């Protein structure tokens, strides 16, 4: 049953929040007094106080006793940013290394007084969960300036998460979805830089380890064509896939690649997914073929890295600081009403090209 006077309480909140969001009530200014609100809305003092309490809990106001209620200096609709993951990390449903690095970097971009960061967890098929209700409440209360989706928000088009106009949105996804600006790692640049480096090293026989893609044949064609362009031999059977739920299969796969006849055995290996790197390198060590420079390794990485490889290799991948900074730039452009590119690709970089050292961050647990 609805609480008595909840309608009046909501109207008071909507009125005051509108004044704040429009700039009519500036940060540091005093809001109308309780007595003025009682008269304006013909509401009880209790109802007015409940409305003011909710505004305070939502981060819009600060109470200063007899002096009144004032607008906060930092307001959530201007400085609070959320990042939405489809689920919480758990043993039965672990995160990819990419998500772990994104979480770590995103929380580190909190800037006291100017930018607040919050994590959310929700998927279209679990919008009744406690986690989903948290982001729905914050969206409807206008407690967010912008929202970054860690993956495409499929199935959310009829929810406030996508329909609330006050909030900017950016998705970390390969193409714009639901008219949301997209930012994504440029895997074409990863492939081309990896192959160019291996050719410059004098390598000729290539193998590639990948995570199982949605469309394997198209992905194969791109790698085969690029290998030919760079003068590298890449037999189709030397492109091997590992399922996301079993990255450990990279270990026996790498060992088997090293068991090919000497004239076919790869002298270069591209591990094209960071979730496979540790397993694949362990397989190379077990094969006994990786020592003494017999094989050059390019290992995909999302920086800052979560681990350090057990064998010498060149780490090539994507700076998540740069990726998220681009997301924030797009959100700011949206807030200012500026046009922003529909898709921004982040180029691949070798580890020694980063502006800051890629210090391992460890494994992030459930927050």
How would you characterize this protein structure?
The longest helix has 17 residues, at 6-22. It contains 12 helices and 14 strands. Strands 4-3-5-6-7-13 form a 6-stranded parallel beta sheet, with helices on both faces. A 6-stranded mixed beta sheet has the order 9-8-10-11-12-14, with helices on both faces. A two-stranded antiparallel sheet has the order 1-2. It is elongated, with a radius of gyration of 26 Å. The protein is of the alpha/beta class. It folds into 3 domains: 6-73, Arc Repressor Mutant, subunit A (Orthogonal Bundle), CATH 1.10.10; 77-186 and 322-353, Rossmann fold (3-Layer(aba) Sandwich), CATH 3.40.50; 187-317, 3-Layer(aba) Sandwich (Rossmann fold). Helix 7 links the parallel strand 5 and strand 6. Residues 360-367 have low confidence and may be disordered.
């Amino acid at each position: 049953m609805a609480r008595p006077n909840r309608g009046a309480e909501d109207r008071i909140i909507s009125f005051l929040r509108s004044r704040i969001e429009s700039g009519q009530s500036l940060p540091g200014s005093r809001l109308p007094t309780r007595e003025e609100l009682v008269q304006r809305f013909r509401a009880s003092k209790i109802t007015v106080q409940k409305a003011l309490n909710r505004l305070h809990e939502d981060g819009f106001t600060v109470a200063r006793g007899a002096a009144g209620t004032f607008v906060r200096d930092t307001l959530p609709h201007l400085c609070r940013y959320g990042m939405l993951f489809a689920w919480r990390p758990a043993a039965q449903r672990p995160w990819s290394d990419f998500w772990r690095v994104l979480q770590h970097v995103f929380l580190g971009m909190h800037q006291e007084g100017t930018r607040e960061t919050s994590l959310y967890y929700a998927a279209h098929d679990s919008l009744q969960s406690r986690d989903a209700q948290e982001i729905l409440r914050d969206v409807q209360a206008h407690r967010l300036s912008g929202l970054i989706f860690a993956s495409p928000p499929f199935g959310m088009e009829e929810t406030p998460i996508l329909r609330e106009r006050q909030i900017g949105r950016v998705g970390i996804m390969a193409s714009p979805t639901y008219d949301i600006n997209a930012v994504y790692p440029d895997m074409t640049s990863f492939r081309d830089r990896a192959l160019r480096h291996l050719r410059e090293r004098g390598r000729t026989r290539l193998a590639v380890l990948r995570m199982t893609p949605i469309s394997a044949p198209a992905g194969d064609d791109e790698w085969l064509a690029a290998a030919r362009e760079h003068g590298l031999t890449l037999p189709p059977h030397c492109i091997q896939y590992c399922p996301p739920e079993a990255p450990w299969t990279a270990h026996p796969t790498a060992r088997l690649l090293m068991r090919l006849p000497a004239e076919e055995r790869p002298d270069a290996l591209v591990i094209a997914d960071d979730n496979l790197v540790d397993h694949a390198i362990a397989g190379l060590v077990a094969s006994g073929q990786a020592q003494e420079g017999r094989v050059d390794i390019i290992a995909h990485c999302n920086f800052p890295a979560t681990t350090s490889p057990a064998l010498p290799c060149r780490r090539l991948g994507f700076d998540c600081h740069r990726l998220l900074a681009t997301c924030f730039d797009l959100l700011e452009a949206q807030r200012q009403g500026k046009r922003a590119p529909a898709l921004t690709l982040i180029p691949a970089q070798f580890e020694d090209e980063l502006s800051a050292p890629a210090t391992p961050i460890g494994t992030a647990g459930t927050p």
